[in-house]
Design goal:
Length: 254
Amino acid sequence: MARRRQLYEGKAKILFEGPEPGTLVQYFKDDATAFNSQKKGTITGKGVLNNRISEYLMMRLMDIGVPTHFIRRLNMREQLIREVEIIPLEVVVRNVAAGSLSTRLGIQEGTRLPRSIIEYYYKNAALNHPLVCEEHITAFGWASTQDLDDIVALTLRINDFLSGLLLGVGITLVDFKVEFGRLYENDEMRIVLADEISPDNCRLWDSKTGEKMDKDRFRRDLGKVEEGYQEVARRLGILPEAGVRDLKGPEMMQ
Ligand code: C5P
């Protein structure tokens, strides 16, 4: 197979040029980072599981009409996606207090919020992804008011749908981060869901016991990190057929 051109390497993923113009290949790594890369590690099988979990959740969201960059999964660690212009925002939705909200505002972790809260963080690692408000976003031209209207509408639908889907398998969607991109097609621009949705960027707690099944197991040294990701896939009914043995997946194909 011809060697593909690498376009970008992030902390958990690599983007390669896709087979057709306007497409990219998104490769999921096992690398994990936290606290803006101050903590680094490997979660064996994470890339395989996140590829599956993100495929599954994006397909379900597409079923209800949420536009996404996802086209199809190619293999254990790669998916074909549409090339979009990423909006430099990390959009966080919170249903239950946890993480930086609890630290910043002194609200005890686990407190159910009176309503879902959307926050924006500026996607800039050098600045440590600062919390920003709508005024910053529109004044600095990161997104227009119309873009933000679309982003909020999509984010609320995503939250409602995923909260229900996950609750159905005994998981509380505490909070999550999504990213959006601009897709240009036939002289039109649409805002679409991009990046990934996986236990790397969601807080997922067992609805009965409160046990964490997400990246907080890695961030907070809780142990059984791999098992948390596997349990999410198992409950969604998408654990790779060969089971846990197969999670290392094939080496990267270039
Ligand atoms: O750390 P914080 O409480 O602000 O995180 C809120 C949510 O956003 C968590 O689900 C976390 O996994 C996700 N997040 C992320 N990438 C970041 C920061 C937060 O996926 N850079």
